[in-house]
């Protein structure tokens, strides 16, 4: 049981790091990109990456809540 709560905390920390990487990548994308088509494609990829991070964080939070209620 404690392992689930611990791993949910780890997921949350990894999510924070992923957010930092995402925003750094977006900044870098707009600063260094000259081709509009390439910029649009890469931004769409980054948006999908962020959606994955958000869903992962949501799942971890649900698991943590269930674990707390069961305990």
Task: Please report the number of helical segments.
Answer: 2
Please mark out the parts with pLDDT under 50 across 5 or more consecutive residues, or reply none: none
Task: Write down the overall mean pLDDT.
Answer: 83
Distance between the termini: 8 Å
Largest sheet: none
The beta-strand count equals: 0
SSE class:
mainly alpha
**Portion of residues within helices:** over 70%
Shape: elongated
Please write the string of helix (H) and strand (E) elements: HH
The gyration radius over C-alpha positions equals 16 Å
Query: What fraction of residues sit in β-strands?
Result: under 5%
Polypeptide structure, described:
This protein has 71 residues and is mostly helical. Helices cover 93% and strands 0% of the residues. It has 2 helices and no strands. Helix 1 packs antiparallel against helix 2 (36-70). It is elongated and about 55 Å long. The model has no long low-confidence stretch (mean pLDDT 83).
Summary keywords:
71 residues; mainly alpha
Topology, element by element:
Layout: H1 2-32, H2 36-70
Helix pairs in contact: 1-2
Task: Describe what is shown at a glance.
This protein is mainly alpha-helical and 71 residues long.
């Amino acid at each position: 049981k404690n392992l689930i709560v611990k791993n949910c905390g780890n997921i949350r920390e990894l999510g924070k790091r992923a957010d930092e990487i995402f925003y750094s990548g977006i900044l870098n994308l707009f600063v260094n990109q000259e081709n509009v088509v390439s910029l649009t494609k890469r931004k769409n990829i980054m948006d999908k990456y962020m959606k994955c991070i958000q869903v992962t964080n949501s799942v971890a939070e649900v698991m943590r809540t269930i674990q707390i209620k069961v305990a």
